[in-house]
Amino acid sequence: MNKWLYHIALAFLFCFSCENEPVEQYVATPSPLQIPKLFSDNIIAPIIPINNPQTQEGIALGKKLFFDPILSGNNTQACADCHAPENAFTDSAKFSEGINGNLGTRNSMPLFNLAWNYDEKFFWDGNTFSLEHQVFVPVSDPTEMNSNWKDVVLKLQQHSEYPNLFKNAFGTNNIDSTLISKAIAQFERTLISANSKFDQYLLGETKLTPNELNGFNVFMDETKGDCFHCHGSDKNPLWTDHAFHNNGLDNAFTDLGLGAVTGDPADNGKFKSPSLRNLAFTAPYMHDGRFATLDDVINHYSQGLKNSATVDPLMKKLNQGGVQLSDNDKADLKAFLLTLSDYEFISN
Amino acid sequence: MKRISLLLLILLTLSLACSNNDKVDLTNVTFNFNHNWDGTKVTNADFNTLKFTNAYGNQMSIERLRYLISRIVFQKSNGKTIVLEGYNLVDVTNNETLSFMPSTFVTTGEYSNISFTFGFNNEANTNNYADLNTASWNVPDMLGGGYHYMQLDGKFLNDANEEQGYNYHAIRAVDTPGETPSFPQDTFIVVNLGPTTITDNATFNIEMNIAEWFKTPNTWNLNELNQTLMPNSAAQIMMYENGQNVFSLESVNQ
């Protein structure tokens, strides 16, 4: 009997010792996204992966990595080289040059409001799911940073600062590609653009000129620009539907876009609708950077549309080449589009 | 002590009696939205090819189909109604949200009619819905604002035998677009599904016959009415008229 009591007492002691034993789980300093009023008022919440919450240390580490050429094969190119802050985190060149002088085949995409990319399909053809996975692509792409993750991890591990920064961000100084991608994704989610002149107008903080107001009406008028079906409206501050469309650029395709990803011929020639924010900084335009100016873009929709099997039915008056805007409406539409540019965003 | 025991016994008996007499069974209801073209099943796998022919004779395809349903109402024979909260944007293009389970429970029993609204009624159409804004479902303010009821896009073979786009977009009919639009008549549609007895976890299988949008009473010629139909109040009223027989209740599983 005494033996039994002894065993029960031991078991109790063991349980209590387990309960009281502190489990060390490192938690960095939370840093929730600062969601702009127009966003919280009008659209659903951003996507933050449960396994990669925003933290001060993670964001700071991601920012350092984003601007550090250490991620490239020969330590000459950082993410920021093709995603420059002054260009709303895109490249002013039609195609970006990789570390070996090779050119890509698509225009670099600007980076802002990425946490609101709800279906999490990234790149012009949506070939990559999630911002974290997106980070993996350019680092190892031979035409871009032409590196490999083993080398990148080794370089960072041997660096004088990075191991400690990873320890602060993620509680471990054992660096791996997953943690690198998490840190960069955290930083990229903080690239929020929501202070354009049009945002200020919607918040009652400024007024638009008569030309800008008419341009907005051209944008929203189904008998004129009819831009809102793909690019949203004053109720959707993202200015994109995040969907894939063939917007009548070509009769035949040299780049299949979404079609190459899905294998469905009905998707050939479809590319993601880009946001119309920050157009003042993001020329050239379209997935292949074919249009150098906004005038070129507006002329395309007005009289330059080309027919093909997959052209979107939303492209109006295709048989006339487009929506046939007057010169005044074109000028006003351009004036409105430029009010979507956020000068504070590129100066921070 | 005896007194307390007696009191407890009375309370227990009373509570059991109450629970038996006033028993109200609540259940979930689900609405499935299926689609056909005059009886032939249609899914997004049928999109993007000119495989349909409308009543006028236009050979046509579907590339995008989304529509909004709202205000599901369960009506008792005594006139009492249960209005289920919420709405659902049915996205056939992406094969998403074809099934909708409102958050409100309904009581089991007999109902003299069950209905839903295609689109929003005028009052609901004035609210701000973050998920619908996110889905770029808005109607421009110059057309009265609010939200689309349906976006049906595709291509047809025109009189010149060339493929041409169409945008059969249903909204609240509007005249005099601009700062002070006016509304000639309501164009949301209350769809009556008829009487049903709900027992447990009822699933309503609703059918949309897409061909009906082009058939009765207005035989729709896509050569004449294809794009820029949102500011065309006459076209909107024709859509409303044709929409009266688009939906039907195929079955109720429970």
Biggest interchain interface, per-side counts: A-B, 35 and 30 residues
Please report the first level of CATH classification, the CATH class of the largest domain in chain A: Mainly Alpha
The SS-based structural class of chain B is mainly beta
Shape of chain B: globular
The proportion of residues in beta strands of chain A is under 5%
* Helix content class of chain A: 25-40%
List keywords for this structure.
A: mainly alpha; Cytochrome Bc1 Complex, Chain D, domain 2; 2 domains; two-stranded antiparallel ribbon; 4 strands; 39% helix; B: 254 residues; mainly beta; six-stranded antiparallel sheet; five-stranded mixed sheet; 15 strands; 14% helix; Copper-binding protein MbnP-like domain-containing protein (chain B); MbnP-like_dom (chain B); signal (chain B)
Describe this structure in words.
The complex is a heterodimer of chains A (348) and B (254). Chain A is built from 15 helices and four strands. With 348 residues, chain A is mainly α. Chain A folds into two domains: 153 residues, Orthogonal Bundle (Cytochrome Bc1 Complex, Chain D, domain 2), CATH 1.10.760; 151 residues, Orthogonal Bundle (Cytochrome Bc1 Complex, Chain D, domain 2). The longest helix of chain A is centred in the first third of the chain and has 19 residues. Chain A is globular. Chain B is mainly beta and 254 residues long. Chain B has one domain. Helices cover 14% and strands 37% of the residues of chain B. Chain B has three helices and 15 strands. In chain B, the strands form four sheets. In chain B, strands 6, 7, 10, 11, 12 and 13 form a six-stranded antiparallel β-sheet that branches. Chain B starts with a helix and ends with a strand. The chains are: A mainly alpha (348), B mainly beta (254). Chains A and B meet through helix 11 of A and helix 2, strand 11 and strand 12 of B. Chain B: This is Copper-binding protein MbnP-like domain-containing protein.
